[in-house]
Design goal:
The chain has about 700 residues and is of the alpha+beta class. The protein is about 20% helix and about 20% strand. It contains 15 helices and 26 strands. The termini are far apart.
C-alpha cells in the first residue's frame, strides 16, 4: 500500500531539439506528462534537462537512481509515469525475447513486454522527430543549499530557470534575494555618503543539492530531517515553525563534515554525529519513502542509515540479459501469445481464436510474422488464453531457479557446430568455429568467432545498501519499479561481436579436484563466509553462504577472462571498458552438463553494431600470440611479491587472492562480479607466502 508523496518539483515544457540519446524530462508530481502542456508552457521552464545513453539508463542511472546534472540532480520516475509518454504512439515498440521474459516472470509474474526506452532516431540535425518523447524525472534531493549564503531549504524556496532551448545543461535552481555571507549593519552609510539606505539589488545565487540522505535495506530513500536534527528532535526554542537553516561545509568533499545551524535560535550540530553505529541510533526510523514512485510504503520500521548522495551503495541495478539464440517453434508461439495478451483482452482473443486471418491482421503491425503459419497463430491464441501459473507453482520456481539457467541454452548451442551452418538471420547470431593454433596452450580446446550477436538486457528492479546477488534472493529486497505489479520492464537491444574460448573439461575437472584440497581454497571459503555475514543487508542471515561461493573453475575462467580483456584492449581498437565478459563455468548437476568457457564481447546499441576489431582476434596466429602474451604478463605484477602471496586471513574478508589493479582488476563495465573471485595462482605457478604449491592450470610461464 502506498500514500502520496508531498514533495513536488516544478513542471516544465519541452525544447524541440534533436536527440541522440533518451532525454531526461523534469516533471511535476501526479501523472507525469512534462510535455503535455507544451503550447502553454513558459519559455523559462523547459522540461528537457539532459540525456543519457540507453546502457547508462540501465546500469548507472535507471529508475530510482540519482543522476547528477551540471547544476542539480534528478531521479528517473517509476514505470507508471512513462505511460503518458508512450501514449503518444499508436503502437508501443517492444523487444521480443521469450527466454528472458520467462526468467523475469519468476519474480514479476505479470510482465508481458520488454520495451526500449522512449526515444526514436532523427533523420537530420534539424528534425523535431522524437522531441515529444523522453523519460520523466523528479528533482531529488529536494532540499537545496545556496552557494552564496549557505541557506538550506526545500525546493519551493528556490526558482527554477531553464531558458536556453539548445542548452539544457544550463538549467538550474537559484536562490533569489541571496544576502551573501557578509552581513550589513543597520548604521552602515550608503555608497553616496548621505546616510540614505543603499539601493537593494536582487542577488541570484545558484543552489546545489544537499547531499545527506537516509536509506534502509528495503530500498527506501528519504531526505535527511535537517530541522529535527539540529534541534535534537524538538521544536525550535524560539517558536519558529519553519526556522531558517544553514548548512556550513567546513571541509568540502570529506564526507559528513558539515555543520547545521538554526538562524532563529543559533543552535548548531555537526553532521558527523550521524556517522557510525552510534550515529545510526540517533537517526529516525524509516518512513518507507520511494521518491521515484512519489509514494510511501506503510509500516516500514527499519532503522535508517546515513548515506551520501553519490555513494556507490546508493543504487544497485538488478538486471538480466541473454544472447539471442535461433528460436524454436515453441518460443515463437510464446512471443505471439504475449503480444496478443498485451494488445487484446481475453474476450477479444476468444472471439477470433479460430480465425487465423483476423489474428494475422491484429498482429501484423505489432510483430514480424514472416514465416509464421496459420497453425502457429492458432496455437498462440490458445496459449494466450491459458491461465497463468498459480502462486504455489511460482514460489517453487523462485526457490529452485538459478541465474545459470539463462546461460545453459547458450552453452549447449555452442557445443553443436553442426547448427552453425544453419543459423537464422532473425536471431542476429553468426558464429564460426576456428582452428586452434599450434602454439595455443593445450588446455584451450576450442575457439569460436562470434561474428555477429544480439544481446537483450532488461532491468527488473534495484536494491540499495547491498547488491542483489541472484534473482532467487528474498523478493522483498527488490525495489519495485511501479506502484502496481508491472506489465512491462525497460530493456535494451545491443549488437556486437566477440571471441569464445572453451577449456578442456577433463583437465578442468582434474585441476578442480586438486584445488579443493588446498589451504588457499579453504582460506577463500572462510573469507567468503566472513564477507557474507558482514554484509549490510539483514537478508544475508537467511541465505547459506556456501551457495554463493563459485566453484574453483569459476575463479579460473574469471581470472583468464580479465587477463584477456586487458590484452585484447591493446590490439582490437576498443577500450578495455568497452569489452565485457560472459562466463560459462559451473560443475555438472542432474539438470545441466559441466561448463568451462568464456566469451569476451563488445556490444553497442547502434543498429549497425560494432566494427569487427574484436572478432578478428580469433584468427589462429593472432589469438595464440595474444593468449601467450596475456599469461606471461600475468606471471609478474608490479605489486609482487605482496600480490602473488596474498591470502585472506581472519579478520580479512576480501574475495580475491593474487589479483590487484596492477595485474587483473577490470572496470565495472567489464566484470560481472565487481572484481571478486580472482586469483592468478589458479592459472600460473607463483610463489606463495607459506610455501604451499597451488595447482596451476597452465603450469609455469615456460609451458606457455
Amino acid at each position: 500500500m502506498t500514500t502520496p508523496d508531498p514533495g513536488t518539483p516544478p513542471a516544465g515544457a519541452p525544447a524541440a531539439t534533436p536527440m541522440d540519446a533518451p532525454t531526461m524530462l523534469l516533471a511535476s508530481s501526479g501523472p507525469l506528462d512534462p510535455l503535455g502542456d507544451a503550447e502553454d508552457a513558459q519559455v523559462k521552464n523547459r522540461a528537457k534537462v539532459g540525456s543519457a545513453r540507453p546502457s547508462a539508463l540501465l546500469y548507472t542511472f535507471g529508475v530510482g537512481s540519482i543522476m547528477d546534472l551540471p547544476q542539480f540532480s534528478i531521479m528517473p520516475a517509476g514505470l507508471e509515469d512513462w505511460e503518458p509518454i508512450w501514449r503518444r504512439r499508436q503502437f508501443v515498440p517492444q523487444i521480443d525475447e521469450p527466454r528472458l521474459l520467462d526468467a523475469i516472470r519468476i519474480l514479476l509474474p505479470k510482465v508481458r513486454q520488454l520495451r526500449p526506452f522512449p526515444w526514436q532516431p532523427v533523420p537530420h540535425a534539424r528534425s523535431a522527430d522524437g522531441s515529444d518523447l523522453g523519460i520523466p524525472a523528479r528533482v531529488f534531493p529536494q532540499w537545496m543549499r545556496c552557494t552564496g549564503c549557505d541557506f538550506l531549504g526545500p525546493l519551493a524556496r528556490f526558482e527554477y530557470t531553464n531558458t536556453h532551448p539548445f542548452r539544457p545543461d544550463l538549467a538550474c535552481f537559484e536562490h533569489v534575494g541571496c544576502p551573501g555571507r557578509r552581513r550589513q549593519t543597520d548604521n552602515q552609510p550608503s555608497a553616496a555618503g548621505k546616510g540614505k539606505a543603499p539601493k537593494k539589488r536582487q542577488r541570484r545565487s545558484p543552489a546545489v543539492p544537499a547531499r545527506y540522505l537516509l536509506a534502509c535495506h528495503d530500498g527506501h530513500l528519504d531526505e535527511f530531517p535537517y530541522a529535527l536534527w539540529v534541534h535534537r528532535g524538538n521544536d525550535c526554542p524560539k517558536g519558529a515553525e519553519a526556522p531558517q537553516l544553514k548548512l556550513i561545509d567546513t571541509n568540502i568533499g570529506q564526507g559528513a563534515s558539515a555543520i547545521m545551524r538554526c538562524e532563529a535560535c543559533q543552535t548548531t550540530r555537526g553532521m558527523g554525529e550521524a556517522r557510525g553505529d552510534s550515529g545510526q541510533r540517533k537517526l529516525p526510523t524509516c518512513r518507507g519513502r520511494h521518491p521515484h514512485l512519489n509514494a510511501f510504503d506503510r509500516n516500514c520500521e527499519n532503522q535508517t542509515k546515513l548515506i551520501m548522495m553519490g555513494a556507490s551503495n546508493l543504487w544497485f541495478s538488478a538486471t538480466q540479459s541473454v544472447i539471442v539464440m535461433p528460436r524454436t517453434t515453441s518460443e515463437q508461439r510464446t512471443i505471439l501469445a504475449d503480444t496478443l495478451r498485451t494488445a487484446c483482452s481475453a474476450e477479444e482473443i476468444t472471439a477470433v481464436a479460430t480465425l487465423p486471418g483476423i489474428l494475422r491482421t491484429m498482429l501484423d503491425r505489432r510483430t514480424d510474422l514472416t514465416g509464421v503459419s496459420d497453425e502457429d497463430l492458432l496455437a498462440a491464441a490458445v496459449q494466450a488464453l491459458a491461465p497463468p501459473p498459480d502462486e504455489e507453482e511460482r514460489e517453487e520456481r523462485l526457490r529452485t531457479w538459478d541465474p545459470v539457467d539463462l546461460l545453459v541454452p547458450e552453452w549447449e548451442y555452442l557445443q553443436k557446430p553442426s547448427l552453425f551452418a544453419r543459423q537464422e538471420n532473425a536471431s542476429g547470431l553468426m558464429v564460426t568455429e576456428q582452428p586452434t593454433g599450434d602454439r595455443l596452450p593445450a588446455p584451450i580446446s576450442r575457439v569460436i568467432a562470434v561474428n555477429r550477436m544480439k544481446k537483450i538486457n532488461a532491468m527488473i528492479g534495484f536494491t540499495r545498501i547491498d547488491e542483489l546477488d541472484r534473482v532467487a534472493d528474498v523478493s522483498g529486497r527488490l525495489v519495485k519499479l511501479s506502484t502496481r505489479p508491472p506489465t512491462w520492464v525497460p530493456a535494451t537491444e545491443d549488437r556486437g561481436e566477440g571471441v569464445f574460448l572453451q577449456l578442456d573439461e577433463p583437465a578442468v575437472a582434474a585441476w578442480e579436484a586438486q584445488v579443493l584440497q588446498t589451504s588457499v581454497w579453504k582460506a577463500h571459503q572462510q573469507a567468503h563466509e566472513r564477507n557474507f555475514t558482514r554484509r549490510f543487508s539483514v537478508t544475508a542471515a537467511l541465505v547459506d553462504p556456501a551457495t554463493r561461493l563459485p566453484a574453483p573453475r569459476y575463479w579460473l575462467v574469471h581470472t583468464l577472462a580479465h587477463l584477456l580483456i586487458r590484452e585484447m584492449a591493446m590490439a582490437c581498437g576498443y577500450g578495455a571498458a568497452s569489452l565485457s565478459e560472459r562466463l560459462y563455468a559451473w560443475p555438472a548437476t542432474d539438470t545441466r552438463p559441466a561448463a568451462a568457457g568464456l566469451l569476451i564481447a563488445t556490444t553497442a546499441a547502434d543498429s549497425e553494431g560494432t566494427l569487427g576489431g574484436l572478432v578478428a582476434l580469433s584468427e589462429p596466429e593472432r589469438l595464440q600470440s595474444l593468449v601467450v602474451s596475456a599469461l606471461r604478463r600475468a606471471s609478474r605484477c608490479s605489486s609482487d611479491p605482496v600480490c602473488a602471496g596474498r591470502v585472506p586471513r581472519d579478520p580479512e574478508d576480501f574475495l580475491h587472492g593474487a589479483a590487484c589493479h596492477c595485474c587483473c582488476f577490470a572496470s565495472e563495465t567489464s566484470c560481472e562480479k565487481a572484481n571478486r573471485f580472482l586469483d592468478r595462482r589458479f592459472l600460473l605457478r607463483l610463489p606463495t607466502s607459506n610455501g604451499e604449491t597451488v595447482p596451476a592450470f597452465f603450469g609455469t610461464t615456460d609451458a606457455v
